[in-house]
Design brief:
71% of the residues lie in helices and 0% in strands. Helix 2 packs across helix 3 and helix 2 packs across helix 5. By secondary structure, the protein is mainly alpha-helical. The chain starts with a helix and ends in a 5-residue tail after the last helix. The chain has 10 helices and no strands.
């Protein structure tokens, strides 16, 4: 089965894969995770359900990879020369409209992970761990430059801080996260916690 799936993967072009992922994200915004079906994805993308299962194994894997596909790829490769610059470059990857759409989408999916172990596992594998690794690289670069200390206890909480700010903006302020909000939060909270320059 694995060999068949691997062989089939090579036949899907990057353009077709991107088209499929965009359709999945559209359906998620329309109906949510629980109501999303592989039949609906197959119909929307003019694919066979069997092909979708061979390629992705199931709904959880397909959704997690669709979300990952829409996120900035390898943001740790952007080296501005400072931690503040690197964080600002990260916030610039998505405009405010896209950020608001993704915030609403992620809020619904976060709830779904609590009742769906497959989705939780796929999220951890394809989203959480890769992003933590990206942040580790960005932070290690700042340590190597001498901007922050390697023994700073806040280092292990940077991802928590940033995801927390993104996720709770609407709950606390009744507004979606924006580039300006995240830049301000990084300067006021994240960089001071790390002992890094804010200018």
């Amino acid at each position: 089965m694995t060999d068949v799936a691997t062989g089939r993967r090579s036949r899907i072009t990057p353009e077709r894969e991107a088209e499929l992922y965009e359709a999945v994200l559209d359906l998620l915004r329309e109906v949510g995770y629980d109501a999303l079906t592989m039949d609906a994805v197959a119909a929307r993308t003019r694919s066979s359900k069997a092909t979708l299962y061979r390629q992705w194994g199931g709904k959880a894997e397909l959704v997690a990879k669709a979300i990952r596909h829409g996120k900035p790829s390898r943001f740790a490769e952007v080296d501005t020369g400072s931690l503040r610059g690197d964080f600002q470059a990260l916030t610039a990857h998505q405009d405010d409209c896209t950020m608001a759409q993704n915030h609403a989408l992620m809020r619904g999916l976060a709830m779904a992970t609590h009742t769906n172990p497959d989705l939780q596992r796929a999220f951890r594998e394809h989203l959480i761990e890769p992003e933590r690794e990206e942040f580790r690289r960005v932070l290690q670069r700042a340590v190597d430059r001498g901007e922050i200390r390697a023994d700073n206890p806040a280092l292990q909480y940077v991802v928590h801080m940033l995801i927390g700010a993104f996720a709770t903006r609407s709950l606390i302020d009744n507004q979606p996260p924006t580039q300006a909000f995240l830049r301000s939060y990084i300067d006021a909270v994240v960089l001071p916690a790390l002992g890094a320059p804010t200018t």
